[in-house]
Structure formats: C-alpha cells, structure tokens
Amino acid sequence: MSAAAPKPLCVLVLGGEMEKGLAAMNLALAAAAAGAPVTLFFSFWGLNFLKRPGAGGRGGPLSRALGWMNRDSAAGQRLGRFHLAGFGRWALRRLMRRKRMPGFEESLALAKTMGVRVLACSTSLEVMGLAREDLVTEVDGVAGAAAFLEAAADATVATFS
Predict the structure, then answer these.
(1) CA atoms of 41 and 145, how far apart (whole Å)
(2) Which is it for strands 117-121 and 38-42: parallel, antiparallel or unpaired?
(3) Residue 5 in contact with residue 34, Cβ under 8 Å?
(4) Which tens digits make up the pLDDT trace of 16-42?
C-alpha cells in the first residue's frame, strides 16, 4: 500500500510579532520536510518579515507615515508578550542560538531551498507604502487575496494574526 501524498499547507501571516513569524516558519519547514507543497502568504503587519531594512514610505502621506512608523524588517520585530523594551527579544534570540534554532531570516532561506512559495499581499503592500523592490529576494511574487484563496482551497490553512 502506498502512502498518500501530504496535504498542501497554506499559511497566512498577518501579525508582525517575532513569535508569529517563527511559528509560521516552523510549520512551513515541517510540512516541506514531509514533502507537502507550502505557500506562505504575508499580509498587513506580517509584511514586516519580508521588508528589506530601511524600506518603506512610498505613496501618499498616510502610506508614507505608515511605512515610516512601521517596525523595520524581520530582525526588528518585537515579541507579542514579554518584549520588555527589547530585553525579551534579545533573551529569546540568545536561547534560540543556544538550542541551535534558526531565526526567521535563516528559516526563510532554508524554506526557499525546500521549495516553499512566498507571496506578499498586493493590497497590503500598497496600503503600507511598500513596493516589490522593498522586499527580500526570497519573495516569489506579489499577489492578491484570490491567489491566497486558490492556494488555500485544498490545503490545510494556518493563520498567524
């Protein structure tokens, strides 16, 4: 008897807190290692994980203000709990290094080598004052909600908001 193909995984990342990005990457890597097709769709504050350092601030005055106020890139994301003015983030990163756990950026690079598809929400990019060139190279494309719905139609869906 042959084993069934793993069910696709589609992950929607809406929140920009560090632990949400790490959890999304953990699921994506586990599913990809099991041979499942994986799509990561980043929208709203989740786009911060895909920003290049210093990017943002395009468009009208409100979009520029959002881009300017928004936390910068994956490395700058704060913890949702126990941030403690940056000490919590520092402590978590230190613990992760001791346990040889990769950070978000390393996990994203590994995921790409495993065939994970990474999409950025086109509508959220525009609202946040970002453009495709403001994103890291691991991003496969910019797409709308219809692309997420198509990827999620027959997949297991996880949401980090």
Answers:
(1) 9
(2) parallel
(3) no
(4) 888 889 899 999 999 999 999 999 999
